[in-house]
Design a protein that fits this description.
The structure holds two protein chains of two kinds. In chain A, strands 1, 2, 3, 4, 5 and 6 form a six-stranded mixed beta sheet that branches. Chain A is globular, with a radius of gyration of 19 Å. In chain A, a hairpin with a 5-residue loop joins β12 (225-231) and β13 (237-242). By secondary structure, chain A is of the alpha+beta class. The longest helix of chain A is centred in the N-terminal third of the chain and has 28 residues, at 41-68. In chain A, 17% of the residues lie in helices and 33% in strands. Chain A starts with 5 loop residues before the first helix and ends in a 7-residue tail after the last strand. In chain A, 43% of the residues are buried. Chain B has one domain (7-155): Butyryl-CoA Dehydrogenase, subunit A, domain 3 (Up-down Bundle). In chain B, α3 (59-81) packs across α6 (127-134) and α6 packs across α7 (138-158). By secondary structure, chain B is mostly helical. Chain B starts with 6 loop residues before the first helix and ends with a helix. The chains are: A alpha+beta, B mainly alpha. At the A-B interface, α1, β1, α2, β6 and β7 of A face α1, α2, α4, α5 and α7 of B.
Amino acid sequence: MNARSVEDVLDRLAPRDRFAHDWTDVLTRAGIEAVQPSRSAWRRRKWVLAAAVLAAILIPVAAATVAARSNWWFFDSHGDQPLTRPVVVKTGTWDGKRWQLVAYRATPEHGILPADLIEICTAVMPYASPPSASTGGALGCGGFSVRPAGSPSGRRGIDYASSQSADLPHWAAGPVVDTAAEVALYFRNGDLLRVPTFAPPEPLGPVRFYATALPTSTDPAAERPVKVVGLDKDGAVVACAPLDPSASC
Amino acid sequence: MTPGVSLEAFEALYRTRAAAFFRFAVAKTGDPERARDAVQDGFAQAIRRRGTFRGTGSLEAWVARCVINAAHDLNRAISRTTEPDDVVADPVIESDAGAAVVREAVQRLPMRQRDALFLRYYLDLDYRAIADVLDVEVGTVSSTLHTARNSLRDALQEVPR
């Protein structure tokens, strides 16, 4: 063992590793429906209808789903069931380390999504071939609004995942409504980072994606954005999500 | 539900910090699968009990306490059926003798020292937040961390080079 400091020991005890986010699972464990429980009886009935329609759609999709599950590592670690095959949306290099962003459209494990939501899973990982060989990445899945910020649905039009590992620097990435040309990340110290969005090579719904390495700081808390905002080509806000209880949209 | 602690606040914390909570839980449980359950259950527990959050400390510290509780519950459930120890074998760090020495040193730390160390290192909580999680005075956190670090440094001296 090469550990020569307490920090080495702790790094080895719990290495930086991928974590498959699953917010829907948290809500289920908390006894909360993924669909907000405050809906009216009429809306609930619409849900039953939607469920019946979706079930009819999903049955034939199930066969395709099997084909969509290639040997990507995230399907071994709770990645949600794919409705589309995972596609490499973008590759790049951060600090000399090559990465790839892979995304797919999924069906949530616990429940059916409202009509204005789609489930998008986004993974950022070191570039590797074959894909099953990749380690040091992270996957996030979440209900993603196809409506812009401020819509009555109250959804946000942007999602956010972040991680770091021995193989990649601290990064942030996620889907955003397809009207967003840029994503702005606001930091606690007032700094602002604006990054362009990019489209998937295959249709995943009305979404684009963003991905960026986060600035490094001696204060790890300062590296975390407090808010992410999607901006259209004219600079108007089309999506927004607070990432800190102190932030608002 | 307490005003100001919305599901969105929990979700925001989860989206940004779940990976750090996961490392913390891996250190607590020694098993990635159980650690994942501890994170998911901990957040779920925090959501269920959000009405009791007083708002005097940080939400992250409060969730950390829930994740610790969940990890303890899971470890207890396992130890009833398999082994009596609080921390279960970690195949990564037990791959050589030197690692085993250090790992044992971590296991030998009193639970409060271990928790303080993990909260500081993996979650980067400040002393005030650690004090909230462990329900101790801030000054106690400082001395607890100091003692824990010294114990581990001593153990490192014993590791064959």
